[in-house]
Amino acid sequence: MTKLRPDLQIIADNITPGSRVLDIGCGDGALMAALRDEKGCDARGLEIDPVNVASAVGKGLSVVQGDADTDLATYPDGSFDYAVLSQTLQTTHRPDVMLDQLLRIGQQAFVSFPNFAHWRVRSSLMFGGRMPVTRLIPQSWYDTPNIHHVTIDDFRALVQDGKYAQEGQWFLSGDKQTGRGMANLLAEHAVFLLRG
Amino acid sequence: MSEDTRYGLNRQVRLLGPLPLDSGTSLAPVEYAYETYGNLNADASNAILICHALTMDQYVASKHPLTGKPGWWTDMVGPGRPVDTDRHFVICANVIGSCLGSSGPATINPATDEPWGMDFPVLTIADMVRAQAMLLDHLGIERLHAVVGGSMGGMQAISWAALYPERVKSAVIIASAARHSAQNIAFHEVGRQAIMADPRWRGGAYYADDDPPSSGLAVARMAAHITYLSEAGLTEKFGRRLQDREAKTFGFDADFQVESYLRHQGISFVDRFDANSYLYITRAMDYFDLAEAHGGALANAFRGSQTRFCLISFDTDWLYPTSESRAIVHALNAAGAAVSFMELSSPFGHDSFLLENPEMNRIVDGFLKAGEGK
C-alpha cells in the first residue's frame, strides 16, 4: 500500500468502517482504494481528468468522469455517509454552492484545502509583491486551477454562514499535523469535517 | 468440456420456445447461430456475453464466412485481450431478427414452410435479450461474469442488467444509449424507405427468386455509414479529393473519393446482409426506450441492482453522443448502482468503438479484472 497524501490519511483515519463514501475530485482513486481495502467502505468517485479516471477504473474502482461544478446535482439527497472534497474546493466556481451540495448528498463532508493565509504565502505577497507560488500552490496565477483561494478563517466564516456544524478540524504543516493555535497563520493545509 | 457440442465455433441450435414477445405474439422455435471461445470453468462463473451491433454478427473473433474478414472485435476479444479467451468463456450469438443463421425474416416460418418475410414478428431489444437468456439456459450459464456491447449491443447489455439483474455481475456499455432519439429514428427511417422504395423489395417477399432489393439496401447502408463517422474523420480521410481522376467530369459518376467510398460500403454490404433483417433490427432499435418501460424514470430500471456498470462514450460520436451515456450514468447514480464512466477522445465518430483504442482496452480490462474472484 503506497502512502496516502497526509490530508487523505487524516480523512481515511476518521471515516467509519463500512460507510458509503463519495470522493469528489478523487484523482487516481488512492483514497477510495484505501477506504475499500482497509475499511470495507463502498466508495464512489467523480473525477474530471480522463487519465486519472482510467487509472482509477483500472484499480477496480467505480469512478465517473465528470465536473463537480455541474454533475453533483444528479446525485440524490443523503445517498452517502460521507462526501469528500480534497484540495478541490478552491478550484470550484462557487465554493458556497459546493458546500451545500456536499452536505445535501452526504450526511457528513470532509473538506481539505491549502491555506492561503499561511505565513509563507503572506510573506511572499508582502515582500515579493507577486502572487505566491508555494509547494501546495505550485502554479502561476495565470494557469492555476485555484480560482477561489481561501484561508482557514474564511472557511470557518463560510461554515458559520451556511449554519453547518463543524465536527472536526485538522491542520498540517510540512506534511505533519500541527496544533490549532494560530492555525490560520501556521497551517499550510486544513481538513474539516462538517455536518449539514 | 471441449467434447460438449454446445460449445465451439459455428454452433447452431433450435430452441423450442415459445419466446413471448413484447408485441404480444410469440416466436417458436427460436433458431440460434452462435460461437463460443475459451473454456467454461467448473462453476460456470467466467462467461462473458458479447452483444453485437445492428449489422454485426456472431463472428466477433473469428473469420467471417461470407467476407473472409477477421472477427469484428479482435482488438477487444481474443487471447490476452480485455475479454480474454484464455481466461473467459465468451459467447457471441447472431441476434434474432438478423440473417446469419438465427431466426429472422429470411428463415423458414414453420406454419408455411416458406421464409417468414414480413410475417416475421416485429421485435424489441428486450425480446432479443430474452432470447439470449434462453440460449444461456441451453448453454448451462446461470450468471454472466459480464455482458459487453457497443451501440445496439450496448442497448442489449443495459437491458440485460435491467431485465435480469441477478444474472449479470458486470455490464460494459460502449457508445450506446438508453433510448433512440428522434434523430436516430429519422436516420433509420431514411434507410427503411430506401429499401421499401426499391421495386425489388416486393413487400419483403423476394427470397423465392433470390432477387433482393440490393439497390435500396445499399443506399440505406450508405446513409447509415455517414452517421457512423465524423465530419473531421471524413475530411481527414477524403477531403474534397477526386477519385482516380484529374478533374471533375461534369457528370454523376463518383467523382469524389468519399462518393466512391460510400458506394463501395453500400455494394459490399448487400453481399452479407438481408434487407428485411435491416428493417426489423432498425425497428427494434427505434422502439428502444428503457425509461419508458419503467414508468418514465430510467433510475427505476436499476433500483437495488448489484450489477457493476462501466460506460464509455466517444467525443466525436454524434449518433450516440456522450450526453446519452451520461443520462444512463445519472440514472445509475440515482439508483445507487456502482458505475464507472469515461468519455474517450477519438476522431472516428461512432465507429470508434470498433477500432483499436488502447484507452478503451485498458478501462475494460481493469474493470473486468476487478470483478473477478469476488
Distance between the termini of chain A: 33 Å
Low-confidence stretches of chain B: none
In the CATH hierarchy, what is the class of the largest domain in chain B? Alpha Beta
- Run of helices and strands of chain A: HEHEHEHEHEHHEEHE
Share of helix among residues of chain A? 25-40%
User: What's the arrangement of strands in the largest beta sheet of chain B?
Assistant: 1-4-8-5-11-12-13-14
CATH-defined topology of chain A: Rossmann fold
Mean pLDDT of chain A: 94
Helix/strand class of chain B? alpha/beta
Structural write-up:
- The complex is a heterodimer of chains A (196) and B (374).
- Chain A has helices at 6-13, 30-39, 50-58, 68-71, 95-105, 119-128, 152-161, 183-186, and strands at 20-24, 42-47, 62-65, 80-86, 106-114, 165-173, 176-178, 189-195.
- With 196 residues, chain A is α/β, with parallel strands linked by helices.
- Chain A has a single domain (6-116, 147-195), classed as Rossmann fold.
- Chain A has an eight-stranded mixed β-sheet, sandwiched between helices.
- In chain A, helix 2 links the parallel strand 1 and strand 2.
- In chain A, helix 1 (6-13) runs parallel beside helix 2 (30-39).
- The relative contact order of chain A is 0.15.
- The model of chain A has no long low-confidence stretch (mean pLDDT 94).
- Chain B is an alpha/beta fold and 374 residues long.
- Chain B has two domains: 11-181 and 289-370, Alpha/Beta hydrolase fold, catalytic domain (Rossmann fold), CATH 3.40.50.1820; 184-283, Rna Polymerase Sigma Factor, Chain: A (Orthogonal Bundle).
- Chain B is 31% helix and 16% strand.
- In chain B, strand 13 (308-314), helix 8 and strand 14 (338-344) form a beta-alpha-beta unit.
- In chain B, helix 3 packs antiparallel against helix 4 (214-228) and helix 4 packs across helix 6.
- Chain B is globular.
- The two termini of chain B are 24 Å apart.
- The model of chain B has no long low-confidence stretch (mean pLDDT 96).
